[in-house]
Design brief:
Elements: E1 6-11, H1 19-29, E2 33-38, H2 48-55, H3 66-71, H4 74-79, E3 83-89, H5 91-98, H6 105-112, E4 117-121, H7 125-129, H8 131-142, E5 146-147, E6 151-154, E7 161-165, H9 169-179, E8 194-199, E9 204-207, E10 210-212, H10 219-230, E11 234-239, E12 251-254, H11 258-268, E13 273-276, E14 283-285, E15 306-308, H12 312-317, E16 326-333, H13 337-348, E17 352-357, E18 369-370, E19 372-376, E20 379-382, E21 386-387, H14 388-410
Parallel strand pairs: 1-2, 1-3, 3-4, 4-5, 8-11, 8-13, 11-12, 13-16, 16-17
Antiparallel strand pairs: 6-7, 9-10, 14-15, 17-19, 18-21, 19-20
The structure holds flavin mononucleotide (FMN).
């Protein structure tokens, strides 16, 4: 449990507003001070009387209310808290925040505040999945606003399900308190940055039902995407066929072949950081058959002629004006890991290579842990074995530091 904090809760006008009563109770139980602003629309869903009784504070709504303004004032309200939580955040409120509006007390306080803001969206899946909402969320994330949820599940409307539910209160509290943990405040070191991550294997077709693939599980790439998101970046994750839960708040592009992956990376540029963690097939079948290859008695086994795939890391590292500022490759080797990785750094013109041993005895392919060496122009940094999530976090924090150093050097 974190030490008591001053939390300003902005309640939007959505059907999930009733859950904020439970949220206030639990936050108060944990010793936090809670003050609430309700939008006009929120009054249709919960009463200021309930909210005020639970917060034990006057509930504020009106930007132009002289009494309220005299009592605390919207600018002071914006500054006098440790965190602003918007829950439930309606599609409309998210849109007004993204647009920098200040047309009521809630939006005026949000615009005037320099405090961390946590947004918990709640809306119908169709609203959440609309390009307009997606654009607004991407913009807010790039501005350093944190999000929790939405959760996926049944909606209040009968028969509707999908992403858009307000996260449950315990998850909301966990997200709130995580911000107050050591390091939580500097979490958003990649805010305003675009990070592209490639992940997983590629499938190179032999015929409509068969393909060449490898054992990559995609776990390290997915962790990299999640870590970059947690640090505030806008993230595009380009993944080959894998069955892993999707990291929240990340744009996912699903591809099958190496050629499609290259195309998707190019389409995702410009980016500040590109991490090539995918296990891209080096070769594809020269001429995949359009019909299933049949075996027949007396007929000899088919021979597969292979053609080399374009090297995605090398191509993007040589991209000219569109080259990401930090190009990070992965080297998966089964022997002489560091020596190969050093060669790769030069031959591909990558800024960093993350080398890992993927021999079967290492358990890396498909496993939870990884032991990596970070190879840069200035040397080799060998990290102890740790979870793929930790490796990802360390790489992304280091990338944020590198971007900052590059910017400072350029100034
Ligand atoms: C019954 C009802 C339920 C609603 N639920 C939601 C909701 O869950 N999420 C949402 O984004 N908007 C919802 N709306 C629409 C918002 O109330 C509306 O966009 C309003 O302008 C939001 O105002 P606010 O963002 O200032 O609170 C609902 C509207 C009605 C009539």
């Amino acid at each position: 449990m974190s030490s008591p904090k001053r939390i300003l809760l902005i309640i939007g006008g959505g059907i999930a507003a009733y859950k904020c009563l439970e949220l206030i109770r639990r936050l108060k139980e944990r010793g936090h001070h809670v003050r609430a602003i309700m939008t006009e629309a929120a009054h249709q869903f919960v009463t200021p009387l309930s909210v005020g009784a639970l917060t034990n504070e006057r509930v504020l709504t009106d930007l132009f209310n002289l009494d309220e303004e005299r009592e605390i004032g919207h600018i002071r309200l914006a500054r006098d808290s440790d965190l602003i939580v918007v829950a439930p955040a309606t599609a409309d409120l998210i849109a007004r925040m993204a647009g920098g509006h200040a047309d009521n007390l809630a939006t005026a306080v949000l615009l005037a505040s320099d405090k961390p803001v946590l947004v918990a969206p709640a809306m119908n899946p169709a609203m959440w999945l609309k390009p307009a909402t997606k654009r607004n969320v991407i913009q807010l994330k790039a501005d350093g606003i944190r999000f929790v949820g939405p959760a996926i599940g049944e909606m209040a409307e009968r028969g509707e399900a999908g992403p858009g539910r307000l996260v449950e209160v315990p998850e909301l509290i966990e997200a709130i308190e995580r911000i107050f943990e050591p390091g939580g405040q500097r979490d958003h070191v990649l805010a305003g940055r675009h990070v592209v991550v490639t992940s997983g294997p590629t499938h190179e077709p032999i015929d409509p039902v068969r393909y060449l693939a490898n054992r990559s599980s995609g776990k390290q790439g997915f962790e990299l995407a999640a870590a970059a998101r947690e640090l505030g970046a806008r993230v595009t994750l380009i993944t080959g066929p894998v069955s892993l839960p999707e990291p929240q708040g990340v744009d996912i592009v699903r591809i099958k072949t190496a050629a499609e992956m290259l195309e998707a990376v190019r389409a995702a540029l410009p980016a500040d950081v590109a991490v090539f963690a995918a296990a891209v097939a080096d070769w594809r079948v020269d001429s995949p058959q359009t019909e299933k290859i049949k075996k027949a008695e007396g007929k000899s086994a088919p021979t597969l002629a292979l053609t080399e795939n374009t090297d995605i890391l090398k191509t993007i590292a040589h991209e000219g004006a569109l080259r990401p500022r930090l190009v990070i490759g992965f080297a998966a080797e089964t022997q002489d890991v560091v020596a190969y990785a050093k060669k790769k750094l030069k031959s591909k013109r990558a800024d960093w290579i993350i080398a890992n041993d993927v021999s079967p005895s290492s358990g890396v392919m498909g496993g939870e842990n990884n032991t990596v060496h970070l190879i840069t122009a200035s040397g080799v940094d060998s990290w102890p074995e740790m979870s793929k999530a930790k490796v990802a976090r360390k790489i992304m924090e280091r990338a944020a530091g590198e971007l900052l150093a590059k910017r400072t050097a350029a100034e």
